[in-house]
């Protein structure tokens, strides 16, 4: 119209949106392709500007904007985000989780006014129930020469008061080094003049990775030890092929120079899959090398959208997914109506019912926070109820009850947390009888899992992990190679080695050999694996040998 406001829009497959505005030019109504009505209401008062969004008269979402503070309310649950005068961003969830992200002036600028105009993250504090559970800080520094020219910039990462990593960037050489808490280098990254990474060099024994780009800035090759991938592009810049270290080549073909999506994919010049797309560019069909056709179709309908998948040879026996314009699943239907699952939502858009066959699941929520309060499962005389209780958003108790026709015992589970809101202890009662507590502990510096009950987890080095009990009657050792792949695992019981496995891999990261030793008195057995040029498992050679053959479709 004369106002220049968008009245309607339609995509290439006919899905249309219609928009309505008030006299001030504000959007007040939108109709989606499935007919869903989205309405916006505005109100201005001393409390601020209020915007309420509803879908078909339900699922209201209200946003109250007061200066730099925005309060979002869904049902009775409210969350808040505010920008403070010093640049700190504060968020508060309905269950009393507070996150404050503080900023600091840009360290490379000497002028205070200019440095404050480009703030960078400085510290993030997380509070649960008014208690600090986590702090994360960046400390920036600049190193200059005698002439005042910047030689090096860096930052230190501090978590809960402990320095963990230090990042240093040398502008002259274009390299960035990462050091651990004791000052040992763990990673070095080299960049080209355009800021693209050329080499990732972790500390020994890990393998460095090299990257190479073409003259247009597209990735041309990567190599990681004996693994590599080489990419090629056509004259229009479209991805054309990738070749791996075992000379496997995947090729993509296009119909003409105007098409941005491939219509054919082939592996080593052999089996070819054809792709078809609809007018909107979405995938509509896949044709296998033997000519079998898989169909995909999206059908807008009244108040929902329907996604249809039709397998080959059975075009009428299709699978269906029904969902709203907002992406919420309404139903999934098996071919010939053999089965379906229906989903229903409450007034604020949360999943409330899940109905399937002879059963159903019902979900209840706390009105003040929106957290899951209960789950009720019913099916052919079976009934189970799970009730959750929370403290500051953390689940503190879970009760499991069964219907009178079910002969299972009731259970109560209580959760205790450490000072960083991580599960520390689980207490359980079954049929009013207490059972042993389930204890967990974490590393003070890194927060990694350190023990579960009597089992302790220890990293002997970067590539070896030991799991053992307090008396060392059970010891499991797992070793990894420089690529992070498991190469050996052993099990020792009461000081006696009872099992050991070793693994070898090919240049495509597939297991090529597997050796197993099953304790004293046994011999080590080996199993070798081979693969087809396309990548399918071809042969297994061991105590028993197997050969696999595939048709053109794989």
TrEMBL record:
PANTHER family membership: TENEURIN AND N-ACETYLGLUCOSAMINE-1-PHOSPHODIESTER ALPHA-N-ACETYLGLUCOSAMINIDASE, TENEURIN-M
Protein species of origin: Hirondellea gigas
Pfam families: TEN_YD-shell
GO biological process: motor neuron axon guidance
Name this polypeptide is given: Teneurin-m-like
Domain Teneurin-like YD-shell: 2-554
InterPro entries: TEN-like_YD-shell, Teneurin
Keyword Transmembrane: no
Key words of the record: Disulfide bond, EGF-like domain, Repeat
């Amino acid at each position: 119209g004369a106002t220049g406001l968008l009245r309607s829009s339609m995509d290439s497959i006919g899905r249309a949106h219609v928009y309505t505005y008030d006299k001030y030019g504000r959007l007040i109504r939108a109709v989606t392709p499935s007919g869903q009505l989205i309405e916006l209401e505005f109100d201005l008062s001393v409390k601020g500007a209020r915007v309420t969004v509803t879908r078909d008269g339900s699922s209201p979402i209200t946003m109250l904007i007061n200066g730099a503070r925005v309060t979002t309310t869904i049902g009775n649950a409210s969350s808040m985000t505010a920008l403070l005068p010093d640049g700190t961003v504060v968020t508060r969830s309905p269950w009393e989780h507070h996150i404050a992200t503080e900023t600091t002036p840009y360290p490379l600028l000497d002028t205070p006014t200019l440095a404050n105009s480009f703030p960078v993250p400085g510290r993030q504090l997380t509070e649960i129930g008014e208690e600090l559970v986590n702090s994360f800080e960046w400390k920036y520094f600049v190193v200059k020469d005698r002439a005042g020219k910047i030689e090096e910039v860096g930052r230190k990462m501090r978590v809960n008061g402990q320095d963990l990593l230090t990042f240093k960037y040398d502008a002259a050489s274009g390299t960035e080094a990462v050091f651990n808490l004791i000052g040992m280098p763990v990673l070095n990254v080299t960049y080209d003049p355009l800021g693209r990474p050329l080499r990732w060099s972790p500390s020994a024994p890990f393998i460095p990775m090299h990257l190479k780009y073409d003259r247009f800035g597209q990735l041309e090759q990567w190599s990681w030890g004996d693994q590599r991938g080489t990419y090629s592009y056509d004259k229009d810049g479209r991805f054309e092929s990738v070749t791996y270290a075992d000379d496997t080549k995947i090729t993509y073909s296009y119909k003409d120079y105007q098409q941005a999506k491939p219509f054919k994919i082939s592996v080593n010049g052999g089996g070819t899959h054809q792709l078809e797309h609809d007018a909107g560019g979405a995938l509509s069909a896949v044709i296998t090398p033997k000519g079998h056709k898989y169909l995909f179709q999206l059908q807008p309908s009244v108040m929902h959208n329907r996604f249809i998948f039709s397998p080959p040879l059975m075009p009428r026996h299709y699978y269906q997914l029904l969902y709203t314009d907002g992406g919420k699943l309404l139903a999934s239907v098996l071919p010939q109506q053999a089965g379906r699952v229906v989903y229903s939502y409450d007034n604020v858009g949360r999943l409330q019912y899940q109905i399937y066959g002879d059963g159903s699941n019902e979900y209840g929520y706390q009105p003040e926070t929106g957290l899951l309060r209960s789950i009720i499962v019913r099916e052919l005389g079976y009934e189970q109820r799970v009730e959750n209780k929370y403290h500051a958003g953390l689940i503190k108790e879970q009760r499991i009850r069964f219907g009178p026709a079910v002969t299972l015992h009731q259970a109560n589970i209580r959760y205790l947390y450490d000072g960083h809101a991580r599960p520390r202890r689980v207490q359980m009662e079954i049929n009013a009888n207490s059972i042993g507590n389930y204890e967990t502990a974490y590393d003070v510096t890194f927060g990694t899992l350190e023990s579960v009950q009597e089992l302790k987890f220890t990293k002997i080095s970067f590539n070896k992990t030991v799991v053992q009990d307090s008396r060392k009657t059970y010891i499991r050792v797992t070793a990894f190679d420089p690529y992070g792949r498991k190469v050996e695992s052993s099990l020792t019981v009461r000081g006696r080695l009872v099992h050991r496995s070793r693994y070898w891999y090919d240049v495509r990261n597939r297991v090529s050999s597997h050796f197993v030793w099953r304790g004293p008195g046994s011999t080590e057995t080996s199993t070798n694996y081979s693969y087809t040029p396309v990548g399918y498992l071809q042969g297994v050679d061991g105590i028993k040998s197997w050969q696999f053959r595939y048709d053109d479709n794989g």
